[in-house]
Fold this protein.
Amino acid sequence: MDNVTRLLKNSPSLSSRGTQGAPELVREDPAKSADEAFSPCIDTTITGVHFQNPVLTASGTFGYGQEFARLMDLNRLGGIVVKGISAEPMPGNPPPRIYETEAGMLNAIGLQNVGAKKFLEEKLPFLRALRARCVVNVFGYQTEDYVRCIEILNAGEGIDAYELNISCPNTRCGGMVYGSDPRLTAEVVAASKRASRFPLWVKLSPNVTDIAEFARVAEGAGADALTLVNTFVGMAIDVETRTPRVSNVTAGLSGPAIKPLALRMVYQAAGAVQIPIVGIGGIASAEDALEFILAGARAVQVGTANFYAPETALRIVDGLYDYCQRHRVHLSELVGSMRIPQSPVDTVNG
Ligand SMILES: Cc1cc2nc3c(=O)[nH]c(=O)nc-3n(C[C@H](O)[C@H](O)[C@H](O)COP(=O)(O)O)c2cc1C
């Protein structure tokens, strides 16, 4: 993570996004506004779990929470989604594992983590003492790995939900990625749901043609909520050395570059299922978060922005409150409330 932070801090293109560069919401002078008397509720409930606000930090971009404790007041977050946990510890991929692109980053960290047992012993005690909710991201290479990881984690007091990362290649099916095969998606979700003591969120891969189909498959197999999206598969090449920029050759693209794509997928998934949606992908300001909420997300996650502006999630909490106060609405009223003035034209260019 230190490498990532260093890289992004030195980057004018990404670091200008969200802090100085992003258009922030217009804030009216509270002294002149009657809105001051209105105290909006910005809390949200997902799968029976109450979140004091709808802003969570995303898996893999916020460590196990503790790493950010000296940078911000973690108790003000809605929740923390921890780095993906597997049944056994994993070392991750060899370097280079990240590369900055136009308005985004490529990563192939390789799901490095401490393993489920060590997570319970060394990381969870810190997290359960926070007001922020704790969501544990889970992954494996075979369905049995997911189930075994969940069975170990079930002993953890203070876990509020699991988030299943299904963007992993299934080693038994020749590397076919769980999240891009409807049959594998259904299999791993159903088995994980049967094993889970806590609500099961399923994090969908965006690397599919029809996201609505996968949303329906996950819901049908027992998902309690959906998170979308994970990273888009991409790559970059150093033309001087003719070598890939990331050792894994392909890597996951995240950051502002993916926001319009992620937003479209949240909108399509929200129209396809009844279960709650958590939106993620390039969110770096309250306005970004509001777009996802208007498209149908009941909560949002902040990922890549944590690397170059760790205060982003808390700035978004404040911005959402300001917006709700200014518009005299409670946050729950905004979910899925995008207004479409006239019939949309159903073509890409039209
Ligand atoms: C360095 C890095 C590590 C990540 N690790 C995980 C992970 O362990 N599990 C997971 O489900 N998603 C992981 N992700 C994906 C993010 O949680 C998120 O879905 C994605 O980055 C899109 O959001 P963003 O554009 O706000 O970063 C990772 C992303 C990055 C950049």
Notes: The chain has one domain: 2-334. The first strand starts at residue 44 and ends at 46.
